[in-house]
Amino acid sequence: MTDTMTRTLILTPEEWQDRRADHERAADALTAAHRARRSAGERHPVWDFMFTYYPVKPGQLRRWSPGTGVGLLLPEDADRSSLPGPAKFHHVVAAEEGEAWTLDTGAFFAARGSAVTFIHSLLRGTASRPPRFSCFGMHEWAMVYRDRPRHPEPLRLGAAGTDRVVEANRISCTHFDAFRFFTPQAVPRNDRTPTRENQRQMEQPGCLHATMDLYKWATKLGPLLPGDLWLDTFRLACDVRATDMEASPYDLRAWGYEPVAVETPAGRAEYVRRQKEFAGRGQQLRERIVSLIETAYPDLATTAGGDRL
Question: Per-residue confidence at 8, pLDDT binned at 50, 70, 90?
Answer without folding.
Answer: confident
